[in-house]
Amino acid sequence: MTMKRRSNESKSKEHNIRGKWKSVLLVAFIAFVAEKATSKARVHFAMRGKGEVVFRSSGAGFLERFPSSSSSSLTTTTTTTTTEILAVVTVGWQISSSSNERKRHLRRIIENYREMCAATDDGDAPRFKRVTVAVAAYDFDAESMTSFLSSSSEHFFRSSRRNGDWQISLEEEKSSDGRRVTIERAERALKMNYVKENRSSSLPCEFALDLELFGFREIDGTKSHLTPGDLALRHRDIFLRRILSDCEDCDDESSDKVLFIVQEDDVYLDKKHISSFLETSKLTESANKFAEEGKGSLFYHPFFFDYEKDSDGVVYADWRVNAGFVQKWNNNQTIFTSTKASGGGRSLMIRGRSRLQDLLFSSESSSSVGETRVAELREWLDPLSVHPGEFNVEVATNRWIERKVHARVHKTKARRQVRFLLPLSSGVVDAKHRAGSLETLLDSAGIWHASNTYVERRKELSPLDPTSPSKNKKNQETLERLRWRELQQIFRSCLEEGQKSEEEEEGGENECFRCLSVSSEKKAEYRARVVVDDDDEKRRTRRRRRRIDVVFSCA
Predict the structure, then answer these.
(1) Mean pLDDT, the chain, whole residue set
(2) Where does the record place the region Disordered (predicted)?
């Protein structure tokens, strides 16, 4: 009996050992298959699925995608028609604990882009073939954001993606004497099941909503205003992935049909703003092509400005439109230009990959081009390299374009200056292209910052007169933003001879209108001061004496 028991125990141990070896071999086999799958994903670059995916591009191909140029003019012209929108909306707040107002903002933004998908040209053909909204949020908001975006089938929720950070390096080529730039990152994409098939056919173009999740990275406190993390920078990750994906297919023309947009989650962009940007881009790109041919020294980009509303519903424009130039071009079109970029509704729009590439990369063609590209890519993606200032505004508005142009000019010592352009008249009055009204043009350029964060902080500008009264003196004169109607009146004085101000009665001329009437080479420079009686007694009764002091000079 004892011998039989021992024999059974021996067989049992042998069976257990064999079982353990089988488990080890099975695990090893699974690991081998997984490793093969990962390698395959790297080769194919855009493999989909629930597994880990690594984007990787070879150095030679990468330098071909972002080539050197003999020109440093920043004047690449996009000639293709825009047929696609890729919009990134940054949601830097915990939606589960946020107010219903912020949720309403996001719902309205998504709805605005759905309406853009339905926009048509004159021939009733869909203007855009594809509109994609990427909602960028932090990892710790994944559950609440997924729940929010999937709460309505009309949102067309397509996928959720967890993004790693880009890794950029310069490696020696083993097969040659050259070097290659390598850029890669890990990401995990999950396909969502919230899109109803019967809803997808209700729109004339492809509309999709993606959730892009990122890790929290702290930023320099001196570059932050109530902004602890770098989420506002993360649209660059999404743009870069799209650029590389386009180039993998070698379809440069297709990538130049994309309008790249980034905006905060409390600003309202809609069809009129997109149409205005695309129409103004025709002007700016023509002017830049003119400069490229050596006949000009300016780099142009469309101008948009913030506006906010106070508790009484009064609209105040961004203070950067308090000064600028008004000019009449040879086609009889009147334009406004500013040397300073506005926040533009806390948003940034760039048309086409070639324009983005031209802004992002320098024109160096020396042996150090590899090191230069690595440095430029890290500057684009690293939050610690951002210019000092308010972080969100510096990375996700036209301020970034302003900085890039200035930096390029300083480095190359080129005589290139940036101008942000806003049309004040179409210059065309035939029946087919009827001239647009000033009110319509301004409405298409003004973007509502719906949180109204800064509307009560109207004393942002320093007085122009250094001898102005001190802060402790009653009835002091301070400067604040122009109201919407006041801005219209200033621009209208340049378009129409109209009524003369008290200061102009003696001379008998409208100075801005006179400047523009002399010749197309003349332009009127203006500076507007909003002078307010800031008496303490009157402030308590909310009665503040306000007058507008506008000075024009011919340049």
Answers:
(1) 75
(2) 459-478
